[in-house]
Design a protein that fits this description.
The protein is mainly alpha-helical and 192 residues long. It folds into 2 domains: 1-61, Arc Repressor Mutant, subunit A (Orthogonal Bundle), CATH 1.10.10.60; 70-192, Tetracycline Repressor, domain 2, CATH 1.10.357. Helices cover 71% and strands 0% of the residues. It has helices spanning 9-23, 30-37, 41-48, 51-69, 72-75, 81-95, 105-113, 118-144, 154-171, 177-189.
Length: 192
Amino acid sequence: MPRSKSYDENTVLERAMNVFWSNGYEATSVRLLEKQMGINQFSIYSSFSSKKKLFIKSISKYREHVRQNVYQTLLQEGAGMKELEQYLLKAVQKKREPGTSRGCLVVNTAAEIGGSDDEIAAEVNGYFNFIREMLRKVLKTAVEKGEISPDTDIEKQSAFFLGVMQGLSVASKTMDPVQLNDFISVAVKQIK
């Protein structure tokens, strides 16, 4: 008869996500995961089968986290260029606050692992596709509202703004606020 779990898998997965987010994949040991998740190695492997599978599930959990806590403004009906610009400015301001310099888990993962692991790269690309789709919708709405030209190449611009968001995630760790605001200003002006 299988043993029942004495922990909530969603809770321990969120804890794992935060450990990977703070430390990266390679620097996160199973011992650190045990300590931070509050479960033993047997339970980690029983529930997630490997550190890599746990990491992939953590990236998926992160997508859920940002959907609920970070991108609500951009995911709402009617979000256009005004909301995108406000989001970018607010995100940069928030990342400059003490204790918020972790950046984006997925951007950090892309920098750390790149394409060296197909399974992790697929999850990273799934996250980026989610962001790109959100941006497509925002830009289509911006066209409908007359905020940007109807001739705007939505595909290219959504890829561009995905790159802007990735760049800001990294740049906000060290660049000063004036430079970051200039970066956003130039990015927004090029589409108007």
